[in-house]
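pls design
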């Protein structure tokens, strides 16, 4: 357990986990509640209802049930946050867990700060641009950061021309942060294998497709890496960690299911240079894919908020990115320390189906340690077990369905 540390936290300043959208099984929010709660920081969270894993944590002082979709008017969302501030009644560090929340907080800093919220002084328009797949692609080009070749169709005719000339498979993603919830073109990152498959999918996109069509980096020639950092007002990382992703769910395109801390100075230097050049401030979660064909790290996602797997990373001084955020915004020093190389992170409810899928694909991760130096479960904690059991109660039926579908697919493949 990573709670016994002597960090000089300000226990008069609370923490609030902010989410926009309906995703109750989010282990990142539980991790943030535990990380600061174990230090004695009063923790609060916006939850879908009173029976989510986050709401069940012993380290949560109060849940604010508020089911949002991301399609609401921003002013309405800000008004809701101001009501939460009045109920908390003390200075509070805001911890966004999704792109919509990060964009909303950045673009409405003035009224939120006036209500007693503490948040990084990021340039207001930058998180929206980083959360946009097109905006990020353009920033990468401006600053010499490698990224997959991408197309941004503006019409159905553009999609048709792309289908006629592109090399398949390709990856389709929703282009903008907020429209992925209000008018999603695809349900998350989607691999499309044929031109006909793209044409079929595009029938529902209308005349203004809100997608990015991206080069597919073959899994046999690539390796997935992650960078988590907290960056201060001078765009200097006060805490920065690197790791390698072993499995994700859905396979090769979804949330991290199994990962290791692996030292990667080249990747750390690349991330440090990029955040410095664009002037980013706050917590960041980067997804990159190392392309063995040209030896380059290609930036897939720049998430301007806490990543769900952030608890994989902690320094020898007991600092993770959420603790660094709270320390810095309350005027405390963020102590330096080396990351826990070889440490492992496992998301219990999705790693088993991911393991079955990856075994069939034959995918390997050369940089993953042969043996973990320690394991950080996403859900289970001996000092805070109820989020785990709540997760199980809300996962059993969909989890069993996933496993049954994998079993049927496996049996069909052997007949």
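designed seq:
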């Amino acid at each position: 357990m990573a709670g016994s540390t002597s960090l000089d936290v300000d226990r008069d300043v609370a923490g609030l986990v902010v989410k926009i959208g309906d995703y109750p099984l989010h282990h990142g929010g539980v991790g943030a509640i535990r990380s600061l709660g174990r230090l004695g920081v009063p923790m609060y969270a916006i939850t879908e209802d009173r029976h989510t894993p986050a709401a069940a944590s012993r380290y949560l002082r109060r849940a604010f049930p508020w089911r949002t979709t991301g399609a609401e008017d921003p002013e309405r969302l800000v008004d809701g946050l101001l009501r939460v501030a009045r109920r908390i009644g003390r200075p509070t560090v805001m911890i966004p867990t999704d792109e919509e929340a990060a964009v909303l907080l950045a673009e409405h800093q003035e009224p939120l700060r006036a209500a007693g919220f503490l948040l990084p002084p990021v340039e207001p328009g930058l998180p929206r641009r980083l959360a946009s797949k097109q905006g990020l692609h353009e920033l990468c080009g401006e600053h010499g950061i490698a990224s997959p070749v991408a197309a941004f169709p503006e019409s159905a005719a553009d999609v048709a021309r792309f289908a006629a000339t592109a090399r398949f498979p390709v990856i389709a993603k929703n282009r903008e942060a907020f429209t992925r919830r209000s008018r999603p073109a695809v349900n998350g990152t989607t691999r499309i294998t044929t031109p006909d498959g793209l044409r079929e999918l595009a029938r529902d996109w209308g005349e203004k497709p809100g997608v990015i069509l991206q080069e597919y980096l073959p899994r046999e020639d690539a390796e997935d890496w992650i960078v988590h950092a907290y960056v201060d007002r001078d765009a200097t990382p006060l805490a920065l960690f690197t790791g390698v992703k072993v499995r994700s769910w859905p396979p090769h395109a979804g949330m991290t299911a199994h990962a290791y801390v692996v030292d990667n100075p080249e990747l750390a230097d690349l991330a440090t240079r990029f955040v410095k050049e664009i002037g980013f401030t706050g917590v960041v979660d980067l997804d990159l894919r190392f392309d063995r064909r040209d030896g380059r790290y290609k930036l897939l996602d720049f998430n301007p908020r806490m990543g769900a797997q952030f608890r994989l990373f902690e320094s020898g001084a007991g600092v993770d990115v959420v603790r660094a955020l709270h320390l810095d915004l309350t005027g405390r020093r963020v102590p330096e320390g080396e990351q826990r190389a070889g440490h492992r992170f496992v998301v219990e409810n999705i790693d088993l189906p991911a393991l079955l899928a990856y075994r069939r694909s034959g995918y390997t991760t050369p940089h993953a340690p042969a043996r973990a130096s320690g394991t950080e479960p996403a859900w289970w904690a001996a000092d805070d077990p109820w989020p785990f059991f709540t997760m199980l109660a809300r996962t059993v039926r969909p989890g069993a369905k996933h496993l049954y579908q994998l079993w049927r697919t496996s049996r069909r493949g052997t007949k």
